[in-house]
Amino acid sequence: MDTIDTIRCAGPAFRTQTDLQSRPGFVGRLVFVLRSVAKQIDHMLERRRGRLALLEMTDDQLKDIGLSRCDAHREGIRAFWE
Hints:
Elements: H1 2-10, H2 17-22, H3 26-56, H4 59-64, H5 69-76
């Protein structure tokens, strides 16, 4: 019986789903990469929301933060990935 169990467990085709999840190999790296990409996208979208908020500010509000209308417009029209 020991020989059969050894043969059955030796091949990579017989690994279970829990065996793959418990190993810090491909699945762990994939999760890390996906989380990193999601954080980067979230950061870019947050930057875009801030730029759009600049376009909605009044001249007095822009003056309070030290920007001119031209500066706010230039920053507001930039693409979200810049």
